[in-house]
Amino acid sequence: MPVITEIEDLKRLYKRRAPRMFYDYAESGSWTEQTFRENSSDFDKIYLRQRVAVDMDNRSTKTQMLGEDAAMPVALAPVGLTGMQDADGEIKAARAAEKFGVPFTLSTMSICSIEDVAEHTKKPFWFQVYTLKDDDFMQRLFDRAKAANCSAIVVTVDLQVLGQRHKDLKNGLSAPPKLTIPTMLNLATKWRWGLGMLGTKRRFFGNIVGHAHGVKDPSSLSTWTAEAFDPSLDWDRIRQFKKMWGGKMIVKGIMEPEDAVEAVNAGADAIIVSNHGGRQLDGALSSIRVLPAILDSVGDRVEVHLDSGIRSGQDVLKALAMGASGTYIGRAYVYGLGAMGEAGVTKALEVIHREMDISMGFCGHTDINKVDRSILRVPKGFSGDWE
User: Fold this and answer.
1) For 235-266, how does the pLDDT look when each residue is reduced to its tens digit (9 = 90+)?
2) What confidence score (pLDDT) does residue 218 get?
3) Residues 6+ apart with CB under 8 A from 224
4) Which helix (H) or strand (E) holds 321?
5) More reliable by pLDDT, 209 or 6
6) What b/e sequence results for 356-378 when a residue is b if at least 16 CB atoms lie within 10 Å of its CB, and e otherwise?
């Protein structure tokens, strides 16, 4: 077993072990992938200020996200098809998050169902929903989440239509994989993945197949998906979801101050500054660049979290120092899951925690909740001086 010291180590192992279509699904963006790349590279433009002769003893990364205790201000983001990266992937990721003490968010487009994850965990988790047209399906989805003791919903507002991701189209992405000759040749080299899949009954979209009207088997799923998403979404619809759910609501996909204000007015208890990991509108700014303007607009009214581009503990530290009150990792934990299963998710969390904790000490702080912009050197005009 190789020595794992950084997220990139997990990524290399993941690439060797996961089928190509699922690796490409995680490791890609839309169109030219400019936004996908800059989500990460823009963190490199922000520098940390080292302080010396400062007492580093008794450091603490404990905090709260949405009123829930967390070992560090990092949650696992909702990622579709996680159960195709490794057998029963959502269950494994949720268990790793629970043991580590950070929030886990289950995607509607998961392979393991809400009930599957609830059955294998003890701590309440968060559940992500899309803005679908079917009120009956949405209400039943909310009711299932309540029955599973989910403590918050995450409403994704940036996927009314699907951004074009070239690799997914070329690979014929599906769950389970369609057995074309190129796919079969690739799967033949992924024996560890294949053995895991043979050992589980969970190979389809568990929250949809058997629950959505007309979707009794995977063959009818594509038709339902094409018709289910609501391109006419507006903020009144988000208010309706809040009422249908009746609990805490996080709105994910905010990239402009005006939309942040609308989300808060619609009842959001937290918002996530996110461009969907660069998978929707290519050519948009990175999440970290737009964070300051959004904080200026609503930072005194609501928790402002950030995702897209975080691959290290230093990225987390920089986002918090810029003003975010929480962060999310998606690809970073998927690398670990595809590389080593549940142990890999734990390793990803350990790597990020260690790097964040030590870097915080080098910057002269011992409490993650007191980190602020004074530890950063941010380039002039980083957030833009746009016409």
Assistant:
1) 999 999 999 999 999 999 999 999 999 999 99
2) 63
3) 208, 212, 214, 215
4) helix 313-321
5) 6
6) bbebbbbbbbbebeebeeebbeb
Q: Which residue has the tokens 């799967």?
A: 187
104: left (phi over 0), alpha (psi -120 to 50) or beta: beta
> Is the CATH number of domain 7-377 3.20.20.70?
yes
Question: What DSSP designation does 168 have?
Answer: H
CB atoms near residue 387 (< 10 Å): 3
- pTM of the predicted structure, to 2 decimals: 0.95
Helix (H, G, I), strand (E, B) or coil at 92: helix
Q: Hey, what are 267's tokens?
A: 């009842």
Distances (CA, A) of 39 to 17, 45, 312: 25, 11, 13
Higher pLDDT, 217 or 170: 170
The one catalytic residue in 276, 305, 353, 365 is: 276
CA distance 211 to 207: 7
Residue 209 tokens read as: 């197949």
Which residues, 6+ apart, have CB-to-CB distance to 1 below 8 Å?
Answer: none
276 is catalytic: yes
Q: Give the CA dihedral 344, 347, 352, 353, nearest 10 degrees.
A: 140
Tell me the residue type at 180.
T
What are the residue boundaries of the structural domains of the chain, listed by start? 7-377
Digit-coded pLDDT (tens) for 295-318: 999 999 999 999 999 999 999 999
Average pLDDT, the chain: 94
